[in-house]
């Protein structure tokens, strides 16, 4: 098939998949689901690329079968890229990117170079420019009708407050808890407290107990307590 045929339709199809996948992903990202903005956008793009390639190849049984083999084979690679670390899931974006890379490779192998180039641009935009949007969404409050604020207070030696603050921040990031309004407040001379908030929907009772125990065993921590705040709407 002439590569110039239907390039406008290919571009529009990829653009529409990008926009709609982004809209779906924004909602998932806002609710702090593992498969968030970039993952949903990449999956939508990958599906659009494969379908466009199938249409360009004329829809013959053998051609479509080859594409199907690629899709299923890359699915196993993607599954191997996904890892679970505690309650945190990693590698979903990598798996989705692998799927899109397979689609780009399939287009290139079918001598559909312009669609392959357009697909590559959309994938790069998703993995670079959307990263800023992801960070912005992650800092927005996500509250449901049943959520309430859990406020955790950690007492520390004043001269060690910055060190303990960084240790706690790394621990929370490692455990995958979305933390809001983390700050240091002075209590009295020689003593400070580190306060941060977690929504009840982001942590269950057992995980909260485990977190409090971990905080108590950090060097220079004097005490750890928590309180339940009112629902935030």
From TrEMBL:
Q: Where in the cell is it found?
A: Cell membrane
Its GO CC terms are:
plasma membrane
Give the matching Pfam families. Answer: MgtC
Q: Which residues cross the membrane?
A: 6-25, 37-58, 64-83
Domain of life where this protein originates: Bacteria
Topology versus the membrane: Multi-pass membrane protein
Residues forming the ACT domain are 153-229
| Keywords carried by this UniProt record | Cell membrane, Membrane, Transmembrane, Transmembrane helix
Q: Which family does it belong to?
A: Belongs to the MgtC/SapB family.
> This protein is called what?
Putative Mg2+ transporter-C (MgtC) family protein
What is the source species?
A: Thermodesulfobium acidiphilum
